[in-house]
Give the backbone structure.
Amino acid sequence: MTLADSTDDNILNRLAERTAKVVVIGQGYVGLPVAMRAVEVGFPVVGYDVSETRIAALRAGSSYVGDISDEELRAALAAGYLPSTQANDLADFDVAVISVPTPLRNGMPDLTYIEAAAAELGPRMRHGSCVILESTTYPGTTSELVAPLLEAGSGLSAGEYHLGYSPERIDPGNVTYTLVNTPKVTSGVDEASLAVVDAFFGALVDQTVPVGSTAEAELVKLLENTFRHVNIALVNELAMYAHELGVDIWRTIDAASSKPFGYMRFTPGPGVGGHCLPIDPSYLAWRVKQHLGRTFRFVELANDINEHMPDYVHERVTSLLNDRERSLKGSEVLLLGLAYKRGTSDWRESPSVNVAERLAASGAVVEFCDPNIPAVNSDDLDFPLVEFSPERLRSADAVVLLVDHEEFDPAVVAEHARVVLDTRNAMRGHDFTGEVL
Ligand SMILES: NC(=O)c1ccc[n+]([C@@H]2O[C@H](COP(=O)([O-])OP(=O)(O)OC[C@H]3O[C@@H](n4cnc5c(N)ncnc54)[C@H](O)[C@@H]3O)[C@@H](O)[C@H]2O)c1
């Protein structure tokens, strides 16, 4: 029996017995739910993060991730979950999941967080350890960037440790499809790695979908998000033309959605946001450009249209006020929804901010209202965050519904707002003054 065979058996046994030491690098929207689930199924788990603030909050039993309640977190802590900023707590791990940010910097992939995580893990690996990258990235990252860093840090060679990629499909705020019942794509740099990666996630989720290579798994994630990005751009562009043509885009979409095959429903809005859609397709476009010298035209076009939507909202608000003989300059505009989508507290890359900036640049006095976002999470926001109340609705010259959070009761908005631009079709069926996007 070779060393690799014996270590494979060892780690697979420890996974089956739930004694494998699991470390999750990055305790954010992706990493924290993975850590919680790993604790829940019985693994000893270290949740490692460089943010002292986040780790202090976790230790105090206070969750900053909407999908994880304080009760769940406290139960995990009681079961031995260890939130830590100490790299030494990673020593001798069996499975490490990397879920650190992968932003764009000046339009280019910024992989420095992945590099830092790999540099932290390398020296703490042992024969048979398994590293799984979960951060979204372009095809080739696991084998071309992560593997050499782990090998340099550990002194191990390919075959002596396990390495794979498994994209995260978490959908913040979605209570129907959770981490557990959403199929999880798994991959490895070799067969033994795939077996370990698949066994680990097989313990966490109902169904895994093993694929042939880490590059395939990396591309799966980018395909999914590029598909969504492009289709949202399609309905956004159509919404602008339909308005000019005097056709109701929302009823058109509802009717088209009755087709049981060959059509998938996407709806327009004030732009795309969050940590995925505005970023991931550009990772793919960058890789295509860098390796093939070609332009990924669908991505460029979708970026162009989706990035234009806040300007379009600005234009529609201006025209609504104009119809009432008011200028945008000096008007009070209340924006309902700062989060990038319904039901989440995440406002990273939110198009709501772009809308606010454009309105403010034209001299409007802008306020936000978002019951999902606690004041503590809005420190970097340049606009006041106010309560959702009839008084606020009444005092604004115009109200723009940007996110259809369930807390924004359309009946209340209809009753109290002077004029509304509804970018989500949430006011349909209510007698209100204003327009739908
Ligand atoms: N949020 C989503 O809905 C979602 C869904 C699918 C995939 N993803 C992808 O998952 C990855 C993580 O996203 P997220 O939303 O969880 O980000 P996040 O910003 O919420 O969390 C990342 C965490 O990593 C920590 N971190 C940064 N560098 C570190 C290091 N060297 N060592 C330890 N911790 C470090 C940060 O302090 C932060 O707490 C990204 O690649 C993202 O594109 C996100």
About this structure: Residues 1-5 have pLDDT under 50 and may be disordered.
